[in-house]
């Protein structure tokens, strides 16, 4: 009997163990859910903070509630820009392993904010670049509802696109929002359809230009550097040239964006500035690349080291340029609402108050840090495999394409250009791999069978279909959302 008391049955604690496991699974599930709510909670806190600060700044002025609501929506819009649009700048650098995801998030947040606050547009067209004339709307209150509807609809669409994993254009989202609200408020005749036709054309022009230019740069690197007998010697000659091109193009672009606030500058003058800086950077890069390449083995892997740092610099400059250009477009409707409420009239162009630009800059940084990793991984990893050389071609293509588009007067999207560049690099790799396989097969008398050619595809077609579909429906989707929001707001106000 004593032995039975000292040795309890083996299954005595079976029920307790089962209950503890249930509690453990419940606790783990609760932790998982709570982690998923942290980012939305912080985003909501930022939106509330912006609303409170706006209330203090307005100080009981007429229309205070309208401006507070618009500022909160503007903060929500900026968060979604950071979550979706900025991935195009940092995705290639992260996907090529030139920089870690955390470092990319911090770098992009800093340079996006700097671009918005230092070189962002101090004057913006209030109705998305002349799509709808303010005079076409019945009065200033309808104009305010139209702008607020456009802002909220664009933010909702960007939020949905991010959730679906599709990089879309911020500017096109705003354009669609303005069109939808404008049609409901003033009819189809109020829309400048010629401008809309140009924007629709950019859906095709932007990615094709970006893809072709990126593919050409990759073809140049492959022929002049990668597939040469002495790769290090070729890199010492060509990498400084590519760095000079990058520096020159970015300098010309930023001169157009930044110096125009101080004095009028033409495209030709900006290109001259870019040429001088580009040549200077080329000369500086020659000894630096020579020193960096000392002791490297004559193989392809060594070349990645020489391209990594220039790639990080180009990604930072792309973020600065994006902050300078796209933030103004995003907060333009908010600036228009603030001006209309304070002045009581509708202007074709308005100045952007510093606090409005700060909402855009800080909101983008917030959205990027909280929600950016998803799209950065998709753009950098899941369309095609990138290394520093391919990613550098994408970044260089984006800068060159924007300058060419400015020269040609084409309304292009930086999102479409960057993603198009990634597809261009991927398709060129497919073409080059198949060409080499065909030549090898012919030399051996063994043609490449169709199933083997299909296996060699280096671009994921499913992502191409998703992205293309999202681009096509961005304007109609945001327009439909904006129309519904406008009808609701107009009904509530009446």
UniProtKB/TrEMBL annotation:
It is a multi-pass membrane protein. Coiled coil: none annotated. The keyword Protease does not apply. It is found in: Membrane. One of its GO terms (molecular function) is phosphate transmembrane transporter activity. The chain crosses the membrane at residues 37-59, 65-87, 99-119, 143-166, 173-193, 199-218, 238-256, 262-285, 306-324, 352-371, 391-410, 464-489. GO terms for cellular component: membrane. InterPro entries: Phos_transporter (IPR001204). It comes from the Bacteria. Keywords: Membrane, Phosphate transport, Transmembrane, Transmembrane helix, Transport. Pfam families: PHO4. One of its GO terms (biological process) is phosphate ion transmembrane transport. Belongs to the inorganic phosphate transporter (PiT) (TC 2.A.20) family. PANTHER family: PHOSPHATE TRANSPORTER. This is Phosphate transporter. It comes from Thioclava dalianensis.
